[in-house]
Structures are given as C-alpha cells and as structure tokens.
Amino acid sequence: MVLPVIKLGSLFVRTVSKPIAKQLKQAAAFHPKFRGIIIDLAQGYHRLTTVIRRLNIGHSIGNEIRPLNEERAVEAATDLLGELFVFSVAGLAIVYEVQRSVRAEAKKEELRKQELEKMKQRNEDLSAELKLLKQKLELVEQLARQRNMYRLWNWRGYAMPTTEKSKS
C-alpha cells in the first residue's frame, strides 16, 4: 500500500518540478548578475559539447570554437539549468526510494533475526524439558524396579531396561 503512494508522490514531484524549472529559466534570463554567470556557463558547456562532437566524428580540436551569441547562450544555459533541476529532483526521488527500500529490508532482517532467536530459545527450552522428562522417567523406572513393578511395565509391552544395580 505504501509503495504505490510513494511512487505516485515521486511522480508528482517530478511533474511539478518541470514548471518550477521553467520559472527558474525565466528568472535566470532576466536577472543581470545571474545572466552573466549563466552566459559563462553556457559558453563553457558549448565548448565542451563542441570538442566532444569533433572528437566523436574524428575532426581536430585545434580549430577555434566560436562562442554563442548572448541570446543563444542565455537560452542554452536556462535550458541546461531547467534540465539539471528536473534531473536532480528525479535523482533525489530515486535516492529516497532506495534508502526507504534499504530501511525496509533492514527492518525485515531484524524481524527474521528476532524470530530465529525465539526459535533457538524455544529449542533450548524444549531440550531442557526433554532432559528433565528423561530424568523423571529414569527415576520412575528405578522406583518400579525397587518395588518389583516391572511386570506392569512388561504387561504394557514396555521392556524394562536393566541397569547394573538391578542385576545384583
């Protein structure tokens, strides 16, 4: 019951994070100080992706990489920020689900250990009780031999064990 609710909640958070990312992109595009930072970020990202593309198709990377114009840089950076925000929200949701799963598994393991301890204790108790019952049976057999009641035991189909003391 809890798992579907958590999955639904994480899906809700991911869905809500997209409009938040859009608002973040719009605010980032118009804030002057932040605009300068994101333009630098976009230019660096552009250089990185261009180098990777050139290496991928086998061209040299020694050629100059032309920077993006300011508007394209702002657009690329805000898109990157939006995607990073959505990705980080999804990643945090996954980390939360994994940690919750690990905690649930640890709780199950603890319950299994407790159940095993109860079984071991029950086994020890039963072993002690069996030992006590064997001692009592031995005592009853000795008393029966002393009172010469072994015929009663033989009558029921039980062969009386003989001990060294009863032979003498």
Describe this entry's structure for a reader.
It holds the Pfam family OPA3. InterPro entries: OPA3-like. Residues 99-143 form a coiled coil. This is Optic atrophy 3 protein. The protein has helices at 2-30, 32-57, 70-146, 150-155, 164-167. It has 168 residues and is mainly alpha-helical. The chain has one domain (2-129). α1 packs antiparallel against α3 (70-146) and α2 crosses α3. The mean pLDDT is 80.
Cα(first) to Cα(last) distance is 75 Å
Dominant shape: rod-shaped
Count of discrete alpha- or pi-helical segments spanning 4 or more residues: 5
Number of strands: 0
Organism: Buddleja alternifolia
Protein name: Optic atrophy 3 protein
Keywords: Coiled coil
Family: Belongs to the OPA3 family.
What are the salient characteristics of this protein?
single chain, 168 residues, mainly alpha, 85% helix, rod-shaped, Optic atrophy 3 protein
Tell me briefly what this model is.
The protein has 168 residues and is mainly alpha-helical. The protein is 85% helix and 0% strand.
Layout of secondary structure:
Blueprint: H1 2-30, H2 32-57, H3 70-146, H4 150-155, H5 164-167
